[in-house]
Amino acid sequence: MFETLPRLEPRCGSWICTSPTGHVVETFMKPKAQQALDAGWKVQTAQQYLAGLNARNTSKPSTP
After folding, report:
1. Is 13 left (phi over 0), alpha (psi -120 to 50) or beta?
2. Please, are residues 5 and 30 in contact by the beta-carbon 8 Å criterion?
3. pTM confidence score
């Protein structure tokens, strides 16, 4: 399956790359993000990654 590198949103300057084993890195360089994607890593813009992180955290009940 061919995946394309997500385009950065306005005011978003980096990609978050997650390896198949769960290792997470941030890159500001498009060639490095593409390299990670080609190697089978999940690549999201920082905005996408943080939105997903917030969604997971808001689904858990908060404690007083």
Report:
1. alpha
2. yes
3. 0.83
